[in-house]
Amino acid sequence: MALTDLGWEQAKGLAGFLENRGIERIVSSPFVRARESVVPLARRLGLEIEIDGRLAERCVGDWGVDWEVDEARALAEFGRTFEDLDLRFPGGESSREAMDRAIGAVGDALWGDVPVVMASHGNLTALMWKYYDRSVGFAHWRALTNPDVLLLTFEGGKPTFERIWEG
Prior knowledge:
Layout: H1 5-18, E1 25-28, H2 32-45, E2 49-51, H3 71-83, H4 95-110, E3 116-119, H5 122-132, H6 138-143, E4 148-155, E5 158-166
Parallel strand pairs: 1-2, 1-3
Antiparallel strand pairs: 4-5
């Protein structure tokens, strides 16, 4: 699914916000909306967007609940995946599996020790955050906005996530 007109406006605003932060690489999920979200930034900085399939949104699978019919129950079922990282619905991947692939992408992106923008999706972003801070859970995922920017830094080897933009 492509960005809406509002999404493109937000992407342009995000590019302006990130333009002077010394970004040297942009890595994105292969999904269209994630890629399009960083196109204005890539153009401003003259950078190519590198695609990493490990940043694709998590496939939750069939949890037996229809969002449109019973949103409360769907959210409750989805919320369980933040408590039981190994819970896997039929046809999907567990939170731990998704987290592991995402953290692999983060590790590879940080290997060059330069500022990197990574474009992904809400659930996967929350799971990356949870990897570094075990207190992160369902409520943190629910509080994410579109777009949202979390800054990951390491001071003395200790990782810190800071929310620096809310769409």
